[in-house]
C-alpha cells in the first residue's frame, strides 16, 4: 500500500570508449563514488547520497550507449509477480542470477519494443550514504567532490513503438503518464514522461526510428545554485555542454545537458514538481515543443532530436 | 502498483479565533488562494500549485487547533478497502457524505489513539493550478502573492500512544517510518516521521500527554531563497517567528516555524531527501535531539515541546 | 577621499521603435518604475531600489540605439573640475541646462572617440526607493513586479579607437581597467572593462568599426535565482533571449542577454567580484575569449560580435 | 579620482587563547588560506579570493579580542598625506616599519577614541587568488574548503565616544555614514555603519562603556545558499552559533553570527546594498532597533549588546 511494486530507478550500465577516461570523468568530474570493479571489467559507482551499492556501471566498448536500465522493486515477491505479469503480457523475460553484478540480487531482464533492455531487481546491498543511520549530518565532504549529484534519477531513451512501451510501463509496471508531447498530427506522441513515484519522471521515451538509443542519463542536484556550480565544473574540466543552465517547460526542472568523454549525454538537473497517479497528464503541442523542452529559448537545438548514443 | 493506496495529505481543518483575521493571514500573508466558503462558515483555500479545490479550511472557534487532517487515496475502491481494513483493525470509522465539504467526495473519518481525527477521501474536484494542462508556464503571478507555498505538505501532531498510531499508519494505511527520535531510555520513541510516498514525511507525531494537539501544519517552498523571502514577508507582516530560517537535522529540510494570528504554528520549509519504503529508518538519540530538530543551534528552544494548539 | 569624482552610472537614453510597446516592456516585463514623461516625448524610469528620479529614458525613433550615457559625480565642484579637465585633455564639452531632463541638474556632455555621447551631472532629485529612510524593510512589492532589477548597472558600447576612450576614462575621469580581451596579435585590446568604484564594471567598450553603437545596457539582480526568474519572465513574455542563463568568465557575473522589442540588447546579471584600483587587471587571450564571454559554452555565439543597436 | 584615499579593510590581528586550536578553526572550519607565520608567533591567513598576502592574523594571548584593524590606502603618497591629516586633526600616529608584518609595507597606526588601534598601509604583496591573471576560472577548490569566505569584509567595534570616531573617519579618512541607530533620546547614536566604498559597511561602531572591544569580524559569502552551507559547517564542527541564518534590517545583509573557539564573534554574511557618499543615511529608531539588527526576529538577543571580546 502507498509505495508498492516498482520503487525507483536502480542502475544503468553505460558503454564508454576509454575506461580510464570514463572512470576519471564519473569519479572526479561528475563526482560519483566508485564502489567496485568486477571480473567483466565493469566499474561501479553510486551518487554520494544513494544508499545502495551501485547505480552507474561503465564498461569499455567500441561504441557509447546504454546496455540496460534497471528498477528496484519492493521485494522478492514483487519481483516474481512482475516477472509473471510481464510474461503474461507477452514479453520474454530472463533471470540473471544474484551476484552477476556486485552486491546485487537476482535480476529480471526484458526488452521493450523501443529496443531497450530493462531490468527489475529486489535486492542490493545497502552501504549507506557515508553517514551513520544514527544522528547523521545533512551532507558530507563527498557532497562537494566534483558535481556530486545526490542520485541517479531517470533516463530518456530513444526508440520506436513508444505506445507499446507506455502500455507495458503503465499496465504491467504500474507507472503513470506525467507529461507528453504530441506530434504535428495532434494525436501521435513524440515523447512520454512516466513516473512510478511522486517524481515528475522516472523514465522517459522519445519516438525514434533507431532502437535502443540513449538520449541522456540524468542526475539530481539539490538547487539551482548547484546547477550553476555543475556548469562551472563542466567548463573547468572542458566537458562539452549541449545546453544549459536552463529550464525545461516539461517537468519545470532546471537543467544542463552535457556529454561524457565518450559522447553519452547526461543531465544534471534540479526540481520538477511533485506528481501523483491521479493527476491529469500535461500535454505539449507540436508548435510549443521548443518551450516544452527548453523553456527559455523556446526552440529545440539541432542536437536534441538527432544526437543519441 | 508503484503508487497505490494512500497518496498524499489532502486537507486540514484549522480553528482560528477571528475569521477575518484568519482569512487575511492565509490569503495575503501565507498566500494561499481562497476557493470558497460554505454554509458552516468555513473558508477554503489551496496552495497555488495544488490542483484540487482545497487543502486548508479555517473556521472560527473559541480555541485554535486542528479539527481533522485528511489523505487522498487512489480511488473509490481503495477508500472502501481501507475503511474495511481500519474496522478490521478495530477502529471505528464514520462516513461523511460527499458534499459536506465543498467539491469533496465522501470521506472516511476515524480517530487515532493520539486523539486526532484522520480522514480519507477519493474524490475532490480538480480546479487546476491556474494554468492550462496544455503548454503550461512553470509558474504564475499567484506564485508570488504572499509567501505562496506550492502545497500543503504535512503536519506534526502531538498526543499520546504514538506506538499504536504508528501501527495503524504502517499496517493499515501503508506508511513507513522514515526517522524517529528515541527518548532517554534508548527505546521509547519521542517522535516519529511517517511517509506514504517518496517525501521525507507525510505526517509526524510527537508523544505528548494531552491528546489531539497540533504542533504545526507545514507548507512547501521551492528553494532556500524562498525560505528567506518567507521570513522577510513574516517580518513585514509582524508574524511571530518561532525559529528560523534554519535547517532540520531530521529530514534535512530548511525551515521556518511561525504562528498564525490565532496561535496555530505553521512551517514553511524546503527540501528533505527522497526516501523509499525499503530504506532503513534514521534514528536520533536523546542527547542529539537538539541537532535533529534544529541542526544549526543544536538545541531545542523551550517552545518546541510545550507550545501546541 | 575614498569615493570621489565620478560615482556611478546615472542614466541612459535609449531609442525605441514604438513608444507604447517600449513603455510596456520597460515597465511590466523588465519591471522598472515609471517616474515621468517630458515634453520631448521621453518616458523616464528608475529601478525600484534606485533613489534618484530616473536612470533609463526611452524615446521613439526610426532606429534603436543609445542617445547618451551619463555618470553621477560627487558634487557641483567636481562637475566643474571634470568639465575643465575634459577640455584640457582636448575634448569639446557642452553644458545642458538643469531641467532639460526631468528632476535632473546641469549636465556636461562630450563625445568620446568611439562615437558615444557621455554625460556627467551632479544633481538629480532623490525620490527614494519606495521606502522611508527610517526603519525601512529590505524590499517592497515593486521588487517583484516584472524582472525588477535593483539598478541600472553599466553598459557595453561598441565603437572605434577604444585606446583613446580608455585614456579619457582613466586619466580624466579616474576609472581603472578591471579586465580586458587581447586580440590575435597579443597586444591590441578587443575589449575593455572599466570601473570607477568597487564594481567589476561601470562601463565597457568593444572595438568595432561603426561608431556609437550599443551592445547592451545592463541591470543588476540580487541572486542567481533572480536570474532564473528573469529568464522565466522573459519566456512568459516572449522576449527574445540572446544567451543565458550562463556565467561570464570576465567579471564572473551570472547573466542573461536578451533584446527589448526594438532590438536593443539588455542584460540582467548578478554577481561579479569586488575590485579596487590597486588590483592588477585580468587579461583574456584571443584563444580563450569564448570562455571569457560565455564561461559555460566556452565559445562566442555569432550574435555577440555582430548584432548591436 | 573615483576610488581614492582609503580603499578597503586590509587586515585584522586577533588574539586567540590556544594557537593550534585557532589555526585549525581559521584554516579548516572558516576555511581561510594560511600564508605564513612570523617570529612573533603570529599566523597569517587570507580569504581564498583576496589577492594580498594576508587579511587575518592570529596570535596566542591570555584573552581574546582585537589588537588592531587596518585599511589599505591608494598609494604611498596617500599614506603620508593621511598620516599628516591625522596629526593635524590632533591624533598621535605611529609608523611601524615595513616588514614588521610579513609581506606588508610601512603602517601608520593611531588610536581612535573608542579605544581601538587603527592602521593604514599602502603596500602588501599581491600573491593572487590562486588563479592566473590570464584567463582565470571563476573559482578554485579552495573556494569549497571549509566555509571559505571570499574576503575579510569589515568589523564592528564596541567602545566609547563614537561621535569623535565618526568625525575622524568622515573628515580625515573620507568615510561616510550609511546607517545609524538612534538611542531612546532620539538624538544620540547607539551605532554607526561607515563606508569608504560602495559597500554598505567597511567598519561599524557601537557605543559601549568599555574601550577597545570587538563585537565581530565579518567575512563575505557569495550567496544565501553559502550562508546555509556556512551554518551547516559550523554545526558539523560544533561551532557555537550566536544567531542565524537570518537577515539584518540594517544593510539588508543575510548573516550568521558565531564564535571562534576563543570567544571572538565572527560573522559570515552575504549581500547588503550598493551605496554611495551622496546617499542619505538610513536611520533606525530605538523602538525598531530589534528589526534593524535581526530583521526576522525583530528583537535583539541578550548577547548582542553584552558579549564582546
From TrEMBL, chains A, B, C, D:
<dbReference type="Pfam" id="PF00903">
    <property type="entry name" value="Glyoxalase"/>
</dbReference>
<comment type="subunit">
    <text>Homotetramer.</text>
</comment>
<dbReference type="GO" id="GO:0018577">
    <property type="term" value="F:catechol 2,3-dioxygenase activity"/>
</dbReference>
<dbReference type="InterPro" id="IPR000486">
    <property type="entry name" value="Xdiol_ring_cleave_dOase_1/2"/>
</dbReference>
<dbReference type="Pfam" id="PF22247">
    <property type="entry name" value="Diox-like_N"/>
</dbReference>
<feature type="domain" description="VOC">
    <location>
        <begin position="151"/>
        <end position="271"/>
    </location>
</feature>
<dbReference type="InterPro" id="IPR037523">
    <property type="entry name" value="VOC_core"/>
</dbReference>
<keyword id="KW-0408">Iron</keyword>
<keyword id="KW-0479">Metal-binding</keyword>
<keyword id="KW-0058">Aromatic hydrocarbons catabolism</keyword>
<feature type="domain" description="VOC">
    <location>
        <begin position="8"/>
        <end position="123"/>
    </location>
</feature>
<keyword id="KW-0223">Dioxygenase</keyword>
<dbReference type="InterPro" id="IPR051332">
    <property type="entry name" value="Fosfomycin_Res_Enzymes"/>
</dbReference>
<protein>
    <recommendedName>
        <fullName>Metapyrocatechase</fullName>
        <ecNumber>1.13.11.2</ecNumber>
    </recommendedName>
</protein>
<dbReference type="InterPro" id="IPR029068">
    <property type="entry name" value="Glyas_Bleomycin-R_OHBP_Dase"/>
</dbReference>
<comment type="similarity">
    <text>Belongs to the extradiol ring-cleavage dioxygenase family.</text>
</comment>
<dbReference type="GO" id="GO:0008198">
    <property type="term" value="F:ferrous iron binding"/>
</dbReference>
<keyword id="KW-0677">Repeat</keyword>
<keyword id="KW-0560">Oxidoreductase</keyword>
<dbReference type="InterPro" id="IPR054560">
    <property type="entry name" value="XylE-like_N"/>
</dbReference>
<dbReference type="InterPro" id="IPR004360">
    <property type="entry name" value="Glyas_Fos-R_dOase_dom"/>
</dbReference>
<dbReference type="InterPro" id="IPR017624">
    <property type="entry name" value="Catechol_2-3_dOase"/>
</dbReference>
